[in-house]
Specification:
The structure is a single chain. The chain is mainly alpha-helical. Helix content is 74%, strand content 0%. It contains twelve helices and no strands. The longest helix has 25 residues.
Length: 214
């Protein structure tokens, strides 16, 4: 199974990045940086939520409502401007998935991508329903119907258990207090001497390792 970052590097992913950038009025490269950081964090949060029977049931129900249809009409979605329903849906998804960690996650990603937390929020509100559509489509293809199936789906897209350091890194972003320092601290801890590099490239490289080519 290809990882979520492999998808972002595909033609579909490039369409998503450019469309989200245009819709939110943000630079394409910075939008790509935001999504590269945010997609794994959102999926790790979903994996956490799905670790309980109630959480798994709720996520499966949500995926059943996102059949992936919007992926077939991205041109129309972005050409006409992302409508209010999509943005409202995105806001609800982020609130449900991240809970009280949402603001902290947005602040950290904003610091590392060089844009404001509010701009990150706009990008994520636009992208979250698309991510759910991707997951919903994949869940249908794999006939996901229970928590075990769901765990396999999310684990596969997150690189399974083959990247424990990166998984720990994602966990700590979700547990951060929002001041941004956790990113530098954890990146330095995980990568050792490589920590002398710029933190932005550190984060991209570290998260890229989560999704090793399959």
């Amino acid at each position: 199974m290809a990882g979520i970052l492999d998808l972002l590097n595909s033609d579909l992913g490039k369409t998503i990045v450019s469309g989200v950038a245009e819709s939110t009025g943000q630079d394409t490269n910075k939008t790509s940086s935001v999504l590269t950081m945010a997609m794994p964090v959102l999926m790790k949060a979903m994996q956490r939520n799905a670790s309980t029977p109630e959480g798994a049931e709720g996520l499966i129900s949500a995926l059943n409502k996102h059949d992936g249809g919007i992926l077939d009409n991205l041109g129309d979605l972005f050409a006409g401007g992302v409508n209010t329903y999509i943005l409202q849906d995105g806001s609800k998804i982020l609130g449900h998935v991240l809970g009280n960690k949402q603001q902290g996650v947005e602040q950290i990603i904003g610091q590392k991508s060089g844009i404001s937390a509010s701009a990150v929020a706009d990008i994520l509100k636009t992208a979250a329903p698309i991510l759910m559509a991707i997951l919903g489509k994949q869940s249908r293809q794999e006939n996901v119907s229970n928590s075990s199936d769901l765990g396999g789906l999310l684990g596969g897209l997150l690189g399974g258990n083959s990247a424990q350091k990166e998984q720990s890194f994602l966990e700590q972003i979700l547990d951060a207090d929002g001041d941004g320092s956790i990113v530098d601290d954890v990146a330095g801890m995980v990568l050792g001497s490589a920590g002398k590099q710029k933190s932005g490239s550190l984060l991209g490289g570290l998260l890229g390792g989560v999704f090793g080519k399959k």
